[in-house]
Amino acid sequence: MPNIKSAKKRVKVTLKKNLRNRMVKSAVRTSIKKFEAALAEPTTAAAQFTATTSAIDKAAAKGIIHKNAANRKKARLAKRLAKAAV
């Protein structure tokens, strides 16, 4: 455990940020799973695709996931949506 006051604060802040980041990452993963489940129904999948890409973009904007990783995830989802629509 840290003895210095600023170090104690950093530990608290880091734990708080870590928890928030984990929540956002978990929400993104859940959204992706919902999209994959919705692929059977094209209209539902399109709506879920929009929600999922929005969640991914928000996570990237907050710096929780890298912007290139976000773009890669969105591209893969779009590819799956196009494949399911055919």
Describe the structure.
Helices cover about 85% and strands about 0% of the residues. The chain has one domain (about 5-85): Up-down Bundle (Methane Monooxygenase Hydroxylase, Chain G, domain 1). The N and C termini lie far apart (about 60 Å). The radius of gyration is 17 Å and the shape is elongated. The chain is mostly helical.
Following the backbone from N to C, one meets helices and strands in this order, namely: HHH
Radius of gyration: 17 Å
Number of strands: 0
Q: Please, what is the average pLDDT? A: 95
Discrete helix count: 3
CATH homologous superfamily? Answer: Ribosomal protein S20
Number of domains: 1
Helix-strand makeup class: mainly alpha
The CATH architecture would be Up-down Bundle
Q: Characterize the largest beta sheet: strand count, sense, and whether it forms a barrel.
A: none
Strand content: under 5%
Beginning-to-end CA distance, first to last residue = 58 Å
CATH class: Mainly Alpha
Give the overall silhouette.
elongated
How much helix is in the residues?
over 70%
CATH-assigned fold name = Methane Monooxygenase Hydroxylase, Chain G, domain 1
Low-pLDDT residue spans: none
